[in-house]
Every structure is written in structure tokens, then in C-alpha cells.
Design a protein that fits this description.
This protein is α/β, with parallel strands linked by helices. The protein folds into two domains: 72 residues; 318 residues, no CATH class. 36% of the residues lie in helices and 17% in strands. Strands 5-4-13-11-12-10-8-9 form an eight-stranded mixed β-sheet. The protein has a three-stranded antiparallel β-sheet with strand order 1-2-3, with no helix packed on it. The protein has a two-stranded antiparallel sheet with strand order 6-7. Helix 3 packs parallel to helix 6 and helix 3 runs parallel beside helix 11. The longest helix has 60 residues.
Length: 407
Amino acid sequence: MDRRNSGYDRRTTRSRELGSEHPRRRSRRELERQRERKKKLMAKRVTIVTIMILILILIVTAVVAGVRALISSGDKKSKENTTPTVAATESKEEITFKAPEIEDDKKSKGYFSTLNSGVFIYNKSALELFSGTDESAIEYAECISDFKTSVKDEITVYNMVVPSHIEFALPERVKKENSVNTNSQADFIKSVYTNYIDDVIPINCYNELSEHSKEYLYFNTDNYWTGLGAYYGYKAFCEQTDQRVLDLSVCKENTIEGFEGELAYCDSGLYENLDTVYFWTFPYSTYAMRTDSMGSSPYETSVYFEGESSGPYAYGVFIWGDCPTFVEYNKDLTNGKKIAVVKDSFGNAMVPYLTANYEEVHVIDYSYYEDNLKTYCQDNGITEVLFVNSTLTANSQTQIENLYSLY
């Protein structure tokens, strides 16, 4: 048989003997299988790459978060050392303010003084407007905090900010009718008390004054509080420091008629409503050592200048007026307690009451005293310091600078 013409093909025979498919078909199948393998391999690679990218993203996110937390922590520590924050007093009891009940006869109008545009005349009283802001409150809080930081745990530091007369005397109706722009002193004081950098203890006398706002708490012709108003400030201090409050009923009431305060000039009608200065002498023996000026020798005197007469200087009955240092002593008290009171003139009327609680009351007027407050306390064994300033002082850049000069 001619194999060339019989259709015999060696490759076909060999394929059939081996039971395999046609070479072309086998080649196509293998290509398809290879393609499938490549697809599966590619899918695995994509999955692996995707997982690796996700892991990388998680790692980067964690690293960034850690860096941000570290930066934030550093910023927080920096702020704690340089700027006042509300967080510094968050752990303390929240300070609240009781709104005063101000009598309004629905008739009296009031008017601005023609001699002092910052004074409003209402019911024959001269009321100085208040312009304090959060910024000045924070600056004052920083100033008090700086002293506490300097003395650390050696000295307990208290701060009392005293509101002025207008806060308790001017009805809202009158403010609106006359466009009297005076800022809230409650808000100002709260801003001070919630922005200490260090552990200063706030003494809130506002509520005590508010509860007695219908009484004779402030002079009609001057910025200062009366002896009675100062007593309520003292009462607030004692109650908030867990001390016994001196009872005025066991003291002798004294008066000086015809006090002509420094705002009397603002309106001629004020001379028809001059003030009475009330002060109380105590059922125990006291004396004082006064320094008239820096460098002068102290001399013994009384806590009150009982020989003071009517006129523009009648407020001088309280500790004989301002001076660098005035140290009060209670002869009948032996508890060993001493306190330094750093004050503006509002403090004059309040410090005599403290003799009921302390053997020694060291009164320092920062407008006259020129030495270091911390050194003074260390030299005299003083472990408590009370700052007493009005809102008018706490809002004054000049007075804040005077305070800083002490330390």
C-alpha cells in the first residue's frame, strides 16, 4: 500500500496511540489554562497589594495620630504655663452669682454728670460706669496667679474682687432709657475667678452684697463701700474659709456724719445727700503699728482713727487711710494665725474685722509698698495672703502693674 496515498499520517497515528488530542486543539486548551492561571495569579497579586496598601495606610494613620497627640500635648503644657484657661478651675465648685433686686420707682430718670461723663447720677447717688472686659479680667487673674506660682505651697492665696455701686443701684429701665453703657461686673468677676493659672482660691462676696443690696452698702458720693458693705465682704471671706464670723451686735456702732466723697463734685445735688460713715469697735483689745512711708519707722496707733471728723477725709477713719504697711494686733487672741491683706482703698474698711480671727493682720497697700511681698511674708511667718481689690482696680492696667511690682 502506498502510504502516501492511503491517508496515513504518522503524527495522527501516534496521537491516537497515545490517546491525545489534535495538536492544535491541545495548544488552544493549554493557552486557555495558562490564561486562567495568569488571571488567578494576577488576582492574588492584586489582593496582596491591596492588603499591603491598607496595612500601610493604617500604619501611616497611626503614626500621624501619634505625632499629632504629641504636638497637642506639648501645646497644652505650653499653654498651661503661659496662658490662663478655664480648665485650671474645672475641678472646683462652679461659682454662681445671684442677681440683685434693684428697687425701681418707675419714675426717676437719672442723667449723666456734666463734669464727668463716666458718672451717672441716679437718686442723688454718683454711679461710676464700668468698662471691664474679659481681656482685662484675664490679665488680672494672671497677675494674682503669678504670685501664687512664686510662693508655691508655702502660702495659701485668696482673691476677692469687690463689685462697685452701680452694679446694685441702677435699674435696667433706667439703663435703657438713658443708654447707659456699663458692663456686667458679675461677668467680669466670674472671668477673673475662672482664669487662674495656679491654685488661687476665689472669695465671692458678690452674692452676700446682692442679698443685702437694699441696705446702705455704698456711699452716695464716693466709689467705696461703707463699713456695712465691707462687713458683708468680711462675712463672705469667713464663711468660705470656714471661720467664725464676728457678730456686729456685740460691737459698738460709731458714726461720722457729713462725709463728702471724691465724686461729690460731679453734681451739685449730691451735696444735699452727703454720707454717713459707720464703723464698729470691738469687744476685745486691739492696737496697730503704722508705717507712714517706705523706710520710715513704724509707730503704735489704734485700728481706727476715731478722731476723724466730717468732710472729704472721713473715710480715713479706717486704718488712718492708705500707707505702705499697717499691722493690726488682737491682744486677746492667741491662735497664732497671721494673714497679709494686699489691697486697694476698698480693703481699708474690711481689714479691721479680721482682727476677730487673726492675731496679726498685715495690711499692705501696693500703691505705696516697694519691697518684695514673698520676702515680707517669709520674714513675718505669714502663711495666708488675701488680695482685696475692686473691679475698678482689677480693670486698671496701672494698678495691675503696681501689683506686679510686689513680686
